[in-house]
Write a structure and sequence with these properties.
By secondary structure, this protein is mainly alpha-helical. It has one domain: 434 Repressor (Amino-terminal Domain). It has 5 helices and no strands. Helix 2 crosses helix 3. The model has no long low-confidence stretch (mean pLDDT 92). This is Helix-turn-helix domain-containing protein. InterPro entries: Cro/C1-type_HTH, Lambda_DNA-bd_dom_sf. One of its GO terms (molecular function) is DNA binding.
């Protein structure tokens, strides 16, 4: 199995995605499970997201896109569905 090399998004891509979602920097940081200052460094190009933080964020966006308030809500729904 080949593992793709992680290429983090650019500062411009990070900011652009946040603006498209309409989220504040604080809300986006929360969804990424990171601190606000860390997120601000991403947008300024002073740091890059880890693959895990970025993956969590994209999963959060996908959960909201299909109608769940958060990834946690989606996971709760799936656990309840599986247990019945």
């Amino acid at each position: 199995m080949t593992i793709k090399k992680w290429i983090p998004p650019t500062a411009q891509e990070i900011k652009q995605l946040r603006e498209v979602t309409g989220f504040t920097q604080a809300k986006t940081a929360h969804l990424c499970r990171i601190g606000l200052k860390t997120y601000q460094k991403w947008e300024q190009g002073d740091a890059s997201p880890s693959q895990s933080a970025w993956t969590i964020y994209t999963f959060e966006l996908r959960a909201q896109k299909i109608g769940f308030q958060s990834l946690d809500n989606l996971m709760d729904f799936l656990e309840q569905k599986h247990s019945t």
